[in-house]
Specification:
3 copies of one chain form a homotrimer. Chain A is of the alpha+beta class. Chain A is built from 7 helices and 14 strands. In chain A, the strands form 2 sheets. Chain A has a 7-stranded mixed barrel with strand order 8-9-13-12-11-10-14. A 6-stranded mixed β-sheet of chain A has the order 2-1-3-5-4-6. In chain A, α1 packs parallel to α5. Chains in contact: A-B, A-C, B-C. At the A-C interface, α1 of A face β1, β2 and α2 of C.
Chain lengths: 281, 281, 281
């Protein structure tokens, strides 16, 4: 299988500590012709589910690539460093904490998985042995693996094969459509304040066009909002809450030029109920 | 006309939601050899004028390139997706909301403009048809256009020609020099807290060197500041306000190692009056 | 000496004002095949020591490169623009304010230093003369120098040789190990809230494994914390303070999934005392 030269890179490192540059330097020193495309380094600190979502959405827009992803609160513990290959001939490199699996699915599903044994990988990859820190596997394990893969080496060099079903999986976000509406977890709040729900728009098909929105778990006296179904932000009046199919095909709540997340006081992981006006689930 | 392989990219997407990576992935999948240079993705949310200023200043420092710019609060409404060519053989791609025009002027002026018809563009560019979202034209329209342009395809493939004079223009920021000073809008506040004014330094030529600075619209009792004309930050004493020619040739107010914007409590769009000490306009 | 094509770039510019793109545009216009790797542009505003630390840690992970670094509160004053070559055949370009010296040491030490004379550099580099601003030498002096170096031109073209010992040096951060513990400056607080100390772990070798941590200069009544020596974050219970060898070989204080810097209320430059529990230095 021919591997491409693009290495995408997603992490929760931020740019301020030099961690991103450290990984990029390691990759460049192993494969000077690797092209590195930064997907995001502003994933919330330790937010594995948030990173998994962004990675799954974005990775499939690239041509087949080596996808390096490091959101790794368990670094240095028993959690394993892994490499996954996909039906689309991508390779995913990162920790076995669920970060990579949604991406693998969005790339056609896993075709194989390997445990990274750093000593073996460096030996078979032609690299001198080096110390492995307990706190920065991005630089010491994952970046070298991505660099070797981007050179065309087979994932088998990294270590022994793993049973794909043995990999750590995240609890999928919850959503349920019922006769008069739906409940769904908030899976994303973006820079624009849009509130992304774990609810496929095509499963929901909101009718009628005026809906009641309630934030769950706030008790009896919790405020209830009214949302209008629209196609885009610009159709909304100032302050009017909209419900739309977002660009990933999910239901999202939005304002025009302001933050719906702030208006509704919601955070990732909260649950939202959407119902026909007057009908309560 | 030979088109270059660099695609510059400016937006208000931020890096956290994966929007930048989504566009970069689309470009890479169409033109794997395109080189993407990120100008900024931290333009204020929906701040078309702010994005237009940065783009106009920076684009001309690159060799002729495809400049992709997306600050697009009207995405999915009647506002049009456009491509503009310039006398310097650059191509600008983005929404018809005024974002691109100052850049076109800084690149020698427009030599042509086209409406992007996504179906036609994909057909003539050899791409399979694909769904177009209502909320993310960066990924679905503008990035594919930039990728095709970066491959050397002519802008004509995107759609029908537009009359350049028909494009949406932003109200230019206000400035006026009078005999004893000047009034000007604040057009930029940078990370250092420098306050950039819409006032060309060479038109202002501040004499004498001690000036009164007043923030407009604050009424009679508004504080008045004294600024000294200097060449650079390091000439200023701690806490002393300076007025200088900034690196774009405009008048700016600055402190040494601190934020002039904070001291003066100014924001973009406010108006500032600069006058000879004692002489009030 | 053959010079590589990678230009690394570190600054305190942030991404919002277009300063990064301006420098990248200048480099691309002089050497279109230069590959630019952004180490960080989120160095604290004017924080020369912070930038020097990150640069020194990261630059040596790259293959030999042109390292452009601009944290330059003295821009336009008497401080000099310089180029430094290293034993490892890297070239460092930036202001003579101490920013580059730790990096040069981490790259094997200086092999030469030159003052940049912008007029001479542009003439010998085949560039048309251009105005030099007083406030943005990143764009006007350092980026052109990095671009010419990345083309393979010798640093000698930039200007006259300097005596390496004459360059401005930063005061190194303070650390001292004594019989019952150590004192050390806080040199880094990263996005995860880890508190990095100027204390090589191998010089400290903490025994026993429970330590008292005290923040200096807080007086008699200052709180004292207990830290446990661990290998990685995941070994810590919620709220438990850990002391570990960080990935750069230094002593760091950390929490598991939370900010140790916030818990301890420390900032860069403060001093920390670590002692055996019960034993006070």
């Amino acid at each position: 299988v021919k591997r491409p030269k693009i290495v995408t890179f997603l992490s929760d490192f931020g740019w301020d500590g030099g961690y991103v540059g450290a990984c990029e330097g390691v990759i460049a020193s192993i494969n000077p012709s690797a092209r590195i495309a930064h997907i995001s380094h502003d994933i919330g600190v330790g937010d594995v589910a948030g990173g998994a979502l962004i990675l799954a959405r974005v990775c499939k827009l690239y041509p087949p690539a080596a996808h390096l992803a490091v959101v790794d609160p368990g670094v240095g513990t028993a959690r394993q460093p892994i490499v996954i290959t996909t039906e689309r001939t991508d390779v995913l490199i990162g920790p076995d904490n669920g970060l990579l699996l949604a991406a693998a699915e969005s790339l056609g599903g896993m075709s194989g998985a390997w445990l990274i044994d750093p000593r073996q990988m460096r030996a078979k990859g032609g690299l001198a042995q080096a110390a492995i820190s307990s706190t920065f596997h991005g630089r010491d394990i994952f970046a070298p693996a991505a660099a070797l893969i981007s050179q065309g080496l087979e994932p088998e060099i990294c270590g022994r094969a793993l049973e794909p079903s043995s990999l750590v999986r995240l609890e999928p976000p919850h959503w349920r459509v019922h006769t008069d509406g739906a409940n769904a977890d908030v899976i994303e709040i973006d820079r624009f304040g849009n509130v992304g729900l774990a609810l496929p728009f095509d499963e929901f098909l909101p009718r009628p066009e005026i809906l009641a929105v309630e934030i769950d778990g706030e008790g009896e006296g919790s405020p209830e909002w009214t949302a209008r179904v629209v196609n885009t932000y610009g159709e909304l009046r100032p302050g009017e809450l909209g419900l739309l199919r977002d660009s990933w095909g999910q239901v999202a709540l939005a304002l025009n030029g302001a933050s719906a997340a702030e208006l509704l006081s919601v955070r990732r992981g909260m649950s939202v109920r959407v119902a026909r006006r007057g009908d309560r689930a």
